[in-house]
Amino acid sequence: MRTKLHLAIVAFFAFLTASNAQVSEKEAEARLWIKANEKELQINPEDSFSLRFVRKTQAGETLRFQQLKNGVPVFDSEILVHFSPYGEITSTASTYKPTIANINTTPSISKENAIAISNQALEVTGDITFQESKLVFYDKLGGTKLVYRVVTDSFSKTGSWETIVDALTGEVLSTKDIAYYYNKHKHGKEESNPPVAMAPFALVSGTGMVFNPDPLSQAGVAYGAAGYTDGNDAATTQMNNARTSVILPEIDLTAGVYKLKSSYAEIKELGSPAKGLFTQATSAFNFTRSEDGFEAVTAFYHIDKSMRYINETLGIPCVPYQGANGGLVFFDAHGANSADNSFYSNGQLQFGEGGVDDAEDADVILHELGHGLHDWITGGGLSQVNGLSEGSGDYWAVSYSRSLNQWTSDTPQYNWVFGWDGHNPFWNGRTTDYGASYSGGLVGQIHTDGQIWGTVLMKIWDGIGREKTDKAFLNGLDLTTSNTNQQNAAIAVRTAAMDMNYPCADVALMTEKFSEAGYTMPAISLRMNPIPNQTVQAGVSNTYTLPSYAELANPITDNCDAGLTQSPVVGTVLAPGTYSITMVATSGSTVSRTFTLTVLPFLDINENVRNNFIMYPNPASNQITVKGEFDANESVTIYNVLGQAVMNKAITSNEENIDVSNLASGVYNVTFNTAKVTRKFIKE
């Protein structure tokens, strides 16, 4: 069969050209840092750097500079400079290669020639689902060579194949599978079938039946209980009852046909066997596990849900950078040549069918997605040193499954990874209760060693909770490179937490757990992040009593023992106006932060409106409803107990719902700015 390159790949090359033009206001300052440290970095004067990747999150902004020699990129070589949200450089890393020789940079063959040579070497016979060819300096085969690095994903050949082609001679120097597998064993037959073309967006909601996260956890039973074995995909009564009915927030509807495609994920035919895309005429994707569509909707649900959680709940921008994907995660619930394995490569996920079908276990789905998150956050700088990415994938899977509270901490399943796909006659699975420590417990096998990383992250998770750990973990990966080991990843995660101003107690717990696991954590020099300006409202006496801003200041040291003073002092009575508040922390050294406090005048209460005003429920979990006779230009401001404004909302009717689901638990004041009405409510 003639090799066919999909049109979407053409868009990928266009994206590559556009993505080279990265922009950051911090670029000049970052380049100054590189210049100031060029001796330590051993930078050769003839080398230059291009800004290849920029990410900005709650933890700050990370810039990655690609090493160039005579304008040609050096493969797997970059300098990373990270700025906190307050503009300070808090983390740097380098994979710069000073030993790259200054050789001829004029290729004798084109990148198209290199692709043809690669396809012949790989014996690619099916449709190509991803392909790129880049001219780079390469030093992983001994000495410096000018090569084309060709990466190919093909429907007919399991994995993601890297071919290194000598750009001067056309010789194939190496070929290898560079996909990221959740299990070290790879096997399965090869077949060839064509993929199906992409459909345009037209998104509606739907429903589906899925395992969440797996049938054993849902039922609270062990593998082998009556009706709870793989049984060649048998839809036993027990298996049917273990399914969960879920909402699919977005699915594609085009010309009356529903498809598993959303703003974050899309089903594709990426590898054999070809079982279709399970499009249908109804929005209810309700299958039993004996039907192939069941694995498809289960994979779609968990990928889409996880990506929504990251981007919308956690507020961390993270989507595939691969241009052909258009920001979507491509997945094939029946791929990998039906092997008892699954893998991630180039923005794509393929799930095998040997043993328990992999896409029936959310742990497998989210582990492979974890590789993708690692890849996208680092702009292609995913590290497998010490099994870092394997442990990261294990963490991402268990962070979700443990959040469902289906197993208690005294059960072994509480710590299991792949509780349905593994820990059974097919294979042993893995755990986040691994006994080895870093670095003495390393055995040189990435899936085994990754358990050290996954285990310590879950111990932190137990201490500070899911969302905080997930945020620190993902934003910590942003500070890593392709050669980051577990030791430096631990430092990166803690740095991200401090940059996000986590309470000192949380940072101390991280230090404790990382240290107990064998990582060497540098001492923390006293730091206190800048404090944002505050606006509050005077009380009925038209004065405001100054509270303690110790929690807001949050000085961080190893033992959280910094002394802290506040000026003016707590209890000072202030009239409406603008004031400077200074917080001074002392622990060996001294750090001072000053912010502006604006005290607004008290708003008199309109008796008529007050007497006809209703707000409910109280306490509230997700929303409050207000009723009253409001002016057309009414708005509300919600203040916390420190007098800080945490929400503003326009009121457009005499009965309005206000979403308070994102507020932390506590007591709040709701002030209606025109009606001059204030009410308290409790957020549960």
From TrEMBL:
Secretion system C-terminal sorting domain ranges (all copies): 615-682
Domain FTP: 62-91
SUPFAM superfamilies for this protein: Metalloproteases ('zincins'), catalytic domain
The entry's keywords: Hydrolase, Metal-binding, Metalloprotease, Protease, Signal, Zinc
Segments forming domain Peptidase M4: 257-373
Keyword Signal among record annotations: yes
Domain of life: Bacteria
Leader sequence segment: 1-23
InterPro entries referenced in this protein's UniProt entry, alphabetically: FTP_domain, PepSY, Peptidase_M4_domain, Secre_tail, Zinc_Metalloprotease_M4
Stretches assigned to the PepSY domain: 109-175
Keyword tRNA processing on entry: no
Name of the protein in its database record: T9SS type A sorting domain-containing protein
Originating organism: Flavobacterium buctense
